[in-house]
Amino acid sequence: MMNESRFLKIASVIVCVVVTILCLLTMNRTVGFIDSGEIAAAAATLGVPHPTGYPLLMILGHVATLLIPVRDILALNILGALMTGAGAGVMTLLFARFITMIPSKHRDQREAVPSLWIPLSAGFGGLLTSLTSVWWAQGTLFEAYALHALFLPLVMLTFLNYLEADRDKEKGEAWKVSRAGFLFSFTLGLAFTNHMTTIILAPAFLYVFFGQFGFSAGTFRRLIQLLPGFIIGLLPYLYLPIRAAASPPFNWGGTTTLSRFLDHITGQQFREFMFDFSVTGDQLGWYFATLPGEFAYIGLALGLLGIVMLFRGSVRLGMFTSLLFLFCLFYSGTYAIKEIEPYFMTATLVLGIWAAFGLLEVMRRFGQNLAIGIGTLALLASGLLHYGQVDQSDNTMVEDLALNVLAPLPDNAVLFTTRWDIFLAATMYFQHVEDIRPNVSVINVNMLHDRVYLSQVIEANPEFKRVTKPIRAFVNERKHVDRGERRSKKDSIEYGRLFYRMLNGIINTNGRPTFVTGEIDPLVGYGWNKVPVNLSYAVIPDTGYIRVHEVDYRFSLPGNRTDPDVMSAVEFYALAELARAEYEAKYGKTEAAEKYIERAGGYDPGVDPDDIPILPMGNQRYVRKKARFFQSLQ
Length: 634
Prior knowledge:
The chain is built from 26 helices and five strands. The protein is mainly α.
């Protein structure tokens, strides 16, 4: 048993080191798409990011920026790689725990297995899971999912350890929680402070818990005994109101009141996207279509064998893993967001458990050498299949675009935009952490509907207060919406009128150079001329021709060009160039117009619209549309 324990520790360390190295090699060296810039900015400045606030991640991230002597965003991404690697090591221990929990009537088969086989199978499962694109990608950026990659196997391991430790507890000891029980409940609480999808574990955990301890007063007393550890684990949530009260640069939701705090930690603003069965076909269609490749085909075959063997050894453990898998599919398959991949992490972990059992069965039936050969082939195939897919080491698109947008703007400019996904969130990091163009106000038009954000924008831009009455009128109307009152069509029209009246009042009176990006509703800045200038539009009263200095942008394409966000970014560049071409042609400057058209074509990523891989929730159609747009430019 000592040999098995020693081998298992060695296997866990090896898996941890290998996965960490792979994540470090493939991680982004700067900010990524969507939330990356905002999350990094909040961590670096001890702020409060978007719901659910991720307090533990913010604390750990800030410590990383203090301890790792490199650029803040690089330090944070390194932390993401380290957390994912650590999670892979814990995953190996978890898989071994599953194998050793086969009930005693089947242990004769396990005890006949040489001591090296369990660590080998567990290490294989940990590596195979970590080499899927769903899992590996989490180690390439600083996001909540990197810490989730550590907590997900850790919570499951501490839960199984708790069940094992309390299995034979004497009735006289049932009144107090064991050390294993406290560790599990504490870890579970911490996991919730990182990501609410920890709730996916609940049905399976409760099934096994009541299956082992039964339905009795004593069992419910056990649940109550777990509460102190769980509550202590939740204490990082206190970070949110404490930091919000200090008015940090990033203070999403203003979580200083109980209602705002609860809305924030429960993700109230994202509830409308949950349990939407209209997207189930797209989400699950993508998952199952990519599943064989995710596990390099061989791993999936081992997984199918493994679930059969797991059920033969323990129906309870088989049901436990099946419930984890199925509830993950239910939750993720009804969540209407395009970035759904990380939400399938629990299902991916379960498949890794099954694959580990499958490889162990191959060892038992055909010997160690064949099993090692099959396992090695699966790991090599998975690494080769997914390295290029997850590699972000050459992806500087978000940083380049954010700086390209900011650089040409005059001092004290105001930019209204909604492009959170491709550059807006990144500007938060560069302006507030690296002090690049802090004198430009970048305002998220969509977020102005939120009263807390609106008040923060007005506080940061005092000249906006010149339109006090329109602002007050909109805020009063917005209160009715926030209270959930029934709204008629007339009410909705009035709401929109007041919103645009407020926004245009700000544009008309702020006295600063004002710009909008191309996607902004034409009603914003209504009555003013919008002149395409570089990557945005100047909102000005002049009607004559406005000359601009031609800018050569920092621009390079990453390896993964069918990424929807990459396609969105290159289209953003091209549309800005085409808008300027149309403007030049309007004033008879044909040669200049042709030059801008040629520049627009230079952003073509070279993606064949008929060769787009299947992607979640309509992303395949989105990417194909962008690819055809560039085809038309040629």
